[in-house]
Amino acid sequence: MKFKTLLATAMMGMSLMAAKAMAVDLSIVSGATGGDLQFMQDELAAFAKDSGINVKIVPMPSSTTDQFGQYKLWLAAGNADIDIYQTDVIWAPQLADQFVDLTDAAKDVAKDHFPSIIQSQTVNGKLVAIPFFTDAPALYYRKDLLDKYKLTPPKTWDEMAKDAKTVLDGEKNADLQGFVFQGNAYEGLTCDALEWVKSNGGGQIVEPDGKISINNPKAIEAIERAKSWVGSISPKGVLAYQEEESRGVWQTGKSVFMRNWPYAYALGNKDDSAVKGKFDVVPLPAGSGDGAGSAATLGGWNLAVSKYSKHAEEAKKVVMFLASAKVQKDNALKQTHLPTIVSVYDDADVKKDQPVLVKWKDVFLAAVPRPSAPTKTKYNEVSNKFWTAVHDSLSGNGTTADNLKKLEAELTDLRGDGWK
Ligand code: GLC
Question: By C-alpha distance, which of 272, 247, 280, 266 is closest to 333?
């Protein structure tokens, strides 16, 4: 008996040692927005138990622009320390050569995702990244404040500004803002400004056929409209806000309206939030005149395996796990992140606990892509020049008309004899 126990213990020890020897340690980089890191850590801990694959998270700043700059450097240097990258929807054409092809790994599940997202992550037949969640913004509004002033959620930007002013004038609270958004000079401003321009009938900066369209009267009008908010219904400081700064103001109850992505919904309804139960979301407002209509920029994040990883096979397993229906459902329930797997929207728990996501699916389906496909490897420069022109205009650094004229010339130069 004693001998048997000893033997069993020794055998257990040996199999543990074998498992340890086989255990693999990987690294993933992930931006720290809202509760993303904690969520990923919990999912990866569960995965490690079953698979013996341990994944360390290397936290990155929340700004996609800062992440992109760092990742480009690491990838250019062939960094083998990072196995998995969480990638923005706009990066695929620019980083395609640095990641392994996931076509085989995803062959049984790719059809479960929205085809347009799989397509956005496919470059010359290579599946560069597997979708993790998708993103489309909405207008967050304070139900209690709108009710108090007998207002209904605005359908146009001008109504939004008017309603914000009505509430601000009525509340006489110096701490309260009318509207917060992402006005910092970075990719987030490209998203917001594309919405202003597109919703005013002013096009998509560069059209799907590669034509540079940004220098037009409707685009100028849309940016001038946004400029009129800064220092009136929006704080001057909005010119330095990214997503998390806007959410900070909003979630402490200090703004009537906010433009933000779905993640702010779950966080806004947590117990520690001053706006819990007091807000709702509607599609972003429309501009005015011909061609005006609500427009939401398409966002979203994916998972890619570095070509320089020494553990690409294990890394593929990790990304397929994180992109699975199970994790996407958890992400929908806990973080109101929009699934990329169609069936998760029909899941009974999702419908019951986060019904807002079912409404939000329609906003996503109609979302406008940024011009990363037509401008190919030049997208980051295009976007950088666009957000700079917009930020200058909002700050009163040159007129909007001059800034967009200059932008058109710069983009024409950048394109040369065709986008490559
Ligand atoms: C969100 C979107 C992403 C976008 C970023 C801009 O994270 O998902 O696509 O680039 O916001 O700040």
Answer: 266
Residue 289 Ramachandran class (φ > 0 left, ψ -120 to 50 alpha, else beta): left
The pLDDT score that the predictor gives to residue 22 is 66
- What amino acid occupies position 220? I
For the Cβ of 47 lying below 6 angstroms from any atom of ligand 1, the answer is: no
Statement: residue 8 has pLDDT above 90: no
Provide the token pair at 129: 């990244």
Pick the CATH number of 2-135+299-367 from 3.40.190.10, 3.20.20.100, 1.10.8.60, 3.30.70.141: 3.40.190.10
- Secondary structure element (H or E) that encloses residue 303, with its range: strand 299-305
Contacts of 316 (CB under 8 A, 6+ apart): 100, 102, 105, 305
Tell me how far the alpha carbon of residue 60 lies from the centroid of ligand 1, in angstroms. 14
pLDDT at residue 1 above 80?
no
Alpha carbon nearest to ligand 1 atom 4, residue: 299
Best residue among 36, 86, 91, 187 to mutate for probing ligand 1's pocket (most ligand atoms within 8 Å of CB) is 187
If one residue of 135, 247, 368 were mutated to test the ligand 1 pocket, choosing by the most ligand atoms within 8 A of its CB, it would be 135
Every domain of the chain and the residues it spans: 2-135+299-367, 138-297+371-415
DSSP assigned state of 25: E
- What percent of the chain lies above the pLDDT cut of 90? 94
Q: Is the pLDDT of residue 338 over 50?
A: yes
Average pLDDT of the chain? 95
The CATH superfamily holding the domain 138-297+371-415 is Periplasmic binding protein-like II (3.40.190.10)
Place of tokens 């004229």: 405
For 370, phi then psi, to 5°, come to -70, 160
pTM for the whole thing?
Answer: 0.94
Q: What is the mean pLDDT of residues 39-49?
A: 97
Q: Do domains 2-135+299-367 and 138-297+371-415 have the same CATH topology?
A: yes
pLDDT tens, position by position, 136-154: 999 999 999 999 999 999 9
Cβ-Cβ contacts under 8 Å for 322 (sequence gap 6 or more): 40, 43, 44, 132, 303
The predicted pLDDT at position 32 comes to 87
